[in-house]
Design goal:
The protein has 217 residues and is an alpha/beta fold. The protein has a single domain, classed as Rossmann fold. It is built from seven helices and five strands; from the N terminus they run βαβαβααβαβαα. A five-stranded parallel β-sheet has the order 3-2-1-4-5, sandwiched between helices. β2, α2 and β3 form a beta-alpha-beta unit. α1 packs parallel to α2 and α4 packs parallel to α5. The longest helix is centred in the middle third of the chain and has 20 residues. The two termini are 14 Å apart. It binds iron/sulfur cluster (SF4). Iron/sulfur cluster binds next to α4 and α7. Pathway: tRNA modification; tRNA-queuosine biosynthesis.
Amino acid sequence: MTELVREKLDLPEGKSKLLLHSCCAPCSGEVMEAIQASGIEYAIFFYNPNIHPQKEYLLRKEENIRFAEQHGVPIIDADYDTDNWFARAKGMEHEPERGIRCTMCFDMRFERTALYAHEHGYDAISSSLGISRWKNMQQITDCGIRAAEKYPDLLYWDYNWRKKGGASRMIEISKRERFYQQEYCGCVYSLRDTNLHRKAQGRPLIKLGVLYYGDEE
Ligand code: SF4
């Protein structure tokens, strides 16, 4: 197993309280443990109305709640306002991953994170989204900065969680915790496109709630 050796982290610019947007337990596991090991005061903000269907949303959310409780970290269970998400995604149904629909999706999630942070005394926000190698880190950072800069005292912490062993520790922690392993990004369109890709390759379609990290071994 990879040694869980990490550098000591500090919030930039003298910031003192972090609200961490979390997309799921596998992505936030390493991020949470790295933050915690550095003694940074933080809470988790679970706001992901993009996740479809609700069964998948609940699987991801409940696992994240369990892990946060296990670590004694407050977790804010925000709205599942799917109507708003679909309204904003209108016309982008056939955009590819990492395109403008994803920018909208990150913007929406970070806007709510930033608003909550502003209203509840947090001076920094960040997200576990960037740790996934499937994501465009710069796209996520741009969205995070855009959301935070609406509030004068709020900063988006653009730390690259993938680096310095973060990506491999993410997998180690996911296996250690036997986290649920989602097989698509989250929205109905990513589910559709992943299944189309699988079909073209003659692979079975996604089944929700069956794959857990470490099981394939
Ligand atoms: S592919 Fe992922 S990031 Fe992009 S819109 Fe769908 S859920 Fe959001």
